[in-house]
Amino acid sequence: MHEDLLDEGETVSLNRVARLMATERIQGWPRRKRRGFGRVASGRPAGVKNLLERDFSAQEPERKWGTDITEIATLEGKLFLCVVLELYSKLVVGWSMHHRQDRQMVIRSSAAYY
Predict the structure, then answer these.
(1) Residues 6 or more apart in contact with residue 7 via CB below 8 angstroms
(2) Does residue 60 surpass a pLDDT of 70?
(3) Which of 64, 73, 94, 65 is nearest to 82 (CA)?
(4) Could you tell me the pTM of the whole model?
(5) What is the C-alpha end-to-end distance of the chain, expressed in Å?
């Protein structure tokens, strides 16, 4: 409401608009909350170790693989792309796409190599 009044050239403070709206029992539309930002990571599942320890350099082929999942917005909704890289040669070993991000997507992308 305050922004609309300013756009029309009226000089009025935000507090005055809030006070007048309260006396007339007028409420504005609440803004939608953004979801998905600020979530706390749940941590690593039990029994899973970080073998790379953020060392992505490989001294010999087929010793280290890395994976990444990215979200692609399409006209039909979200699509997730999982790519598996061989870290020595930096070549794509496998990939898979799915509408839902889950561990089966990663397994399918690495199974394409075998």
Answers:
(1) none
(2) yes
(3) 94
(4) 0.55
(5) 62
